[in-house]
Amino acid sequence: MALLFAFPIPHSNYSADMTIITALLCLHLLLFTVIRVNSMEPSSSSEDPYKILNIIPNPDGTFTRLQNYPETPPSPDPTLPIPVLSKDLTIDQSKHTWARIYLPRQALNTPPNHPNLPLIVFYHGGGFIFYHANSTYFHDFCVRMANATQSVVVSVDYRLAPEHRLPAAYEDSVQALHWIRASNDLWLAHADFSRCYLMGESAGGNIAYNAGLRAAAEADQIRPLKIKGMILIQPFFGGKKRTPSELRLAKDLNLPLTVTDSMWKLSLPVGVDRDHEYSNPTVNGGAKVLASIRELEWSVAVFGCDGDQLVDRQKELVKLLKDKRVNVVGQFYNAGRHGIFVGDASMSTKVFHLLKTLH
Question: How far apart are CA 232 and CA 125, in angstroms?
């Protein structure tokens, strides 16, 4: 009907009939085009990932990200009437890596030589390409988490792809654990290093998992930091063979398949595909170090929802961990979308509730 109204209707019956016929032909052509587009392969290798992700390569090897995400400055002043304080500290100046530390305000009433707060090391999402630890989206989540769980939260700002492809983010994340272990910061002195959890959302969930594999392999080297488990929130994994949820939600506006494919193209090492171990944790039966995670008695939680194209990958990970006899629980919900556990405060509480049961 919209097409019909787009055409002027003359007074002559003949002209009116021709106008209607022309409009119907246009409608038929439009429907044919829609059917043709919907039947196409969800993503083509010829598509430009820079254009899809709205980034521009620069001559010096860096990239200009055309999408600007709001950022929030830290709030370290203890006189401020806020429940959670935050401050930024450098991890490695040569790599420009740093961390934002969140401390529940009431912890200041406890002597720092009596550490009694759990430690959560958090890795932000963004497809390995976007966001930072000071991005408002993740800053607000960490503030809510530190307050709700009364934990010290360390949000790691790692190097981004495509300037620094994987495993750069994994290396930065493990380096952050060594930095925490050796730190003499007074805020970190409130954290109980024997109750440390690795957490990440989306690409950060992938990073938390891969950083966890590395940390488990060198558990003795990061003491007195003792990791008790991993909380993976809608972790970003992939593979060459499409899953049912990827096909079902290939054109979902929240996270279309063309976007995830482009992120993998720009973040994985050059020359590898989505069945690389960084992307697909199930290849070759899973990492051998999972046996160490079982022996260390880590707890693992994986959050997901049916409205996320990545949900089948997340369920595959839960099955893998169960097969390896790792203590794992899958928390999956109906409907929803990718990013809901960070973006929706009511869903964030489900993550916080699980954390408090682990404490």
Answer: 11
**Six-digit token string for 282:** 């199930």
Give the separation between CA 316 and CA 171, rounded to whole angstroms: 25
Tokens encoding 284: 């070759």
Number of neighbouring beta carbons within 10 Å of residue 225: 19
Q: And the tokens for 150?
A: 């009364």
Point out the residues that are catalytic. Answer: 202, 308, 338
CA distance linking residue 146 with residue 44, whole number of Å = 42
Q: Which residues pair with 252 in a beta bridge?
A: none
Whether pTM > 0.85 for this model: the answer is: yes
Q: Which two tokens stand for residue 295?
A: 């022996």
- Each residue's pLDDT, cut to its tens digit, for the chain (359 residues) gives 222 222 232 333 433 443 333 343 333 433 333 333 333 344 455 689 999 999 999 999 999 999 999 999 999 999 999 999 999 999 999 999 999 999 999 999 887 677 889 999 999 999 999 999 999 999 999 999 999 999 999 999 999 999 999 999 999 999 999 999 999 999 999 999 999 999 999 999 999 999 999 999 999 999 999 999 999 999 999 999 999 999 999 999 999 999 999 999 999 999 999 999 999 999 999 999 999 999 999 999 999 999 999 999 999 999 999 999 999 999 999 999 999 999 999 999 999 999 988 86
DSSP 239: -
